[in-house]
């Protein structure tokens, strides 16, 4: 017992003397959380509260696309919408982690976690990187140096993107097969450290992808991006490695 204590003390002394590195995960700072345990005052328009904003007024004629009920947030695209639903929360960090419970109610449903910086004007709408979780796969995409780069986006829309650039874009997404059941709650964690974005579901790592755009120094907001429907709950956002960027 005495020998074990001496060894432990020696190891601690060595770590202090040589400034043993502390991982980003060990310095996680909670910067936002929401359990959605509240009610709206009306049912005609979005009234999410807690700092959330949506694109329903601009893209769905003001029709309601986000509903708080049963202690969760139900997101569903309105039939008049001309764009997927975007539910936005300001959250600034360099390295960070998002934790969220979610449920997909249909095989075609998916949850997108989109990290953005509206102050960065070299990409469309601040898009930096994104995670898409569906019933069949998980995809991680570098948008900053991929399809949302303004020059690339303009050329794609004009049909003038060179073949080598088209080939390059295929390297900006990593897709990993992963089956999920509908009507079942899952816990997802998306972690950004440096140029690497990794995704785990229910404690199991599903995908990890490294690409330059992921290392953008200022992620300023999280967008929950929904093309059809999704239910989310217990969302938390952490800054890793010493707080905000």
TrEMBL record:
Q: Which UniProt keywords apply?
A: Signal
UniProt GO MF annotations:
hydrolase activity
Q: What is the organism of origin for this protein?
A: Rosistilla oblonga
Show where the 3-keto-alpha-glucoside-1,2-lyase/3-keto-2-hydroxy-glucal hydratase domain sits: 50-215
Endpoints of the signal sequence: 1-24
InterPro entries found in the cross-reference section: AL/BT2_dom (IPR010496), ConA-like_dom_sf (IPR013320)
Q: What is this protein called?
A: 3-keto-alpha-glucoside-1,2-lyase/3-keto-2-hydroxy-glucal hydratase domain-containing protein
Question: Which regions span the lipid bilayer?
Answer: none
Q: Does the record carry Signal as a key word? A: yes
Q: Does the keyword Signal apply?
A: yes
């Amino acid at each position: 017992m005495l020998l074990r204590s001496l060894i432990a003390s020696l190891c601690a002394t060595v770590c202090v003397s040589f400034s043993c590195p502390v991982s980003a995960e060990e310095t996680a700072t909670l910067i936002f959380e929401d359990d959605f345990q509240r009610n709206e005052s009306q049912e005609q328009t979005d009234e999410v509260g807690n700092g959330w904003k949506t694109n329903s007024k601009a893209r769905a004629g003001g029709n309601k696309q986000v509903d708080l009920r049963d202690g969760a947030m139900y997101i569903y695209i309105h039939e008049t919408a001309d764009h997927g639903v975007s539910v936005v929360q300001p959250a600034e960090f360099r390295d960070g982690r998002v934790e969220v419970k979610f449920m997909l109610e249909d095989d075609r449903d998916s949850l997108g976690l989109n990290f953005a910086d509206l102050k960065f004007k070299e990409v469309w709408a601040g898009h930096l990187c994104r995670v898409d979780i569906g019933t069949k796969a998980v995809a991680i995409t570098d948008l900053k140096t991929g399809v949302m780069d303004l020059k690339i986006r303009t050329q794609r829309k004009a049909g003038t993107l060179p073949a080598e650039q088209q080939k390059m874009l295929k390297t900006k997404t990593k897709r990993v097969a992963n089956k999920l059941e509908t009507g079942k709650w899952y816990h997802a964690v998306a972690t950004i450290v440096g140029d690497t974005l990794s995704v785990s579901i229910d404690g199991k790592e599903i995908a990890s992808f490294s690409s330059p755009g992921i290392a953008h120094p200022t992620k300023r907001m999280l967008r929950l991006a929904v093309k059809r429907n999704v239910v989310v709950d217990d969302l938390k956002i952490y800054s890793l490695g010493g707080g905000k960027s």
